[in-house]
Amino acid sequence: MLKKITISIVPIGLLMLSCNKKELPEKEVNISFFRYDSAIYSHSWDSAFVEYVLDSLYPAHPRMTEDFFIIHRMGKPTDTTAIENLQKLILQDPYMQELYDSVKVAFPTEFVQKKVKELHTALRKLKAIYPNMPDYQIYTYVAPFVYKCFVDSNILAWELDMYLGPKFKYYPSLLYPLYMIRKFRHEYMVPDMLKVIMENLFPPPDPMPHLLAHMIYNGKILYVIEQLLPEYHDTILIGWEGKKWEWVKQYEADLWEYFLKHDLLYNNEYIKYRKYVQDGNTTAGLPPESPGNIGTWIGWQIVRAYMEKHPETTLYELLTHPDTTGQYILQASGYRPKAGWLDFLN
Questions:
Q1: 258 partner at 20 to 30 Å CA-CA among 134, 171, 203, 342?
Q2: Burial per residue of 91-118, b for 16 or more beta-carbon CB atoms within 10 angstroms, e otherwise
Q3: For residues 74 and 40, what is the distance between their CA atoms, to the nearest angstrom?
Q4: Which one-letter DSSP state was computed for residue 151?
Q5: d(Cα 26, Cα 243) in Å, to the nearest integer?
Q6: What CA dihedral angle connects 221, 222, 226 and 231, to 10 degrees?
Q7: What is the rounded CA–CA span in Å between residue 26 and residue 42?
Q8: pTM of this prediction?
Q9: What are the residue boundaries of the structural domains of the chain, listed by start?
Q10: pLDDT tens figures, 168-223
Q11: CB contact at 8 A, 185 and 167
């Protein structure tokens, strides 16, 4: 089953090493890399395409080919009619050809290989944390703006047309909000992929009991990713522009007081608390300067406080702690941001 990342970047100049990030050991993990986009889009428009898929592409890359057909809603790659319909879409439609041409220019193979190398380094660290992590086959593909990336068992795939930069001409017509489009750039490729990998290896509690549990789970994922990517600034990991991040840093204590004052931590109605743990341009009920996903950021700070206070805790122990409510992490963290004055409510 495909695990997708929701369409969910600051300038690369903001990258820096945080004091919260530590050097991690590494353990080798085998990966392979294949440009599925090139293999399928560069094929000539002729009757040999069906034979190419059946006799070459599908046998060599069965799971990715099945996923590719699912994404395009084309049936099974063993069905000649489905293959012919896919051929018409990707090789005859000028719009799709133009999209692939844009990807070729923006993502030459040498550039993508650098991203793969960066991901491989992070995966070696993750393998040391979780030895049962599988080896991975990494793919790139092009589709009509479906996922940013996904994981399916040991398949990792980046949809490169979702990383063409916020000024790419077709993004505005897709009606995505600006806070999403701002992150359609290559700086997010590796963090995006690690997020779906982590959520696949360490899935959230089901059901999620309340907001606090959701905050702590998201905070754990972000904390581990920041250890895997020590060169990335917080703004990229949380997905905020710099001024949003500065606002939250300024009002951290006020935000915590706001959560306590309004009894939000143990709210168990997802439809009411989701605004605090989902991406967005702002958080309803808070000033317009606020970002979305504030609950996730606070959960991240709680986990940071916990790990600083309990340095003997391994990352695996953090991720697999039996308390799925988040209550233990909160109490043991001693999280108490400096007193604020609720200035943002005035």
A1: 203
A2: beeeebeebbebbbebbeeeebeebbee
A3: 15
A4: E
A5: 35
A6: 130
A7: 37
A8: 0.91
A9: 3-201, 211-345
A10: 999 988 888 999 999 999 999 999 999 999 999 999 998 899 999 999 999 999 99
A11: no
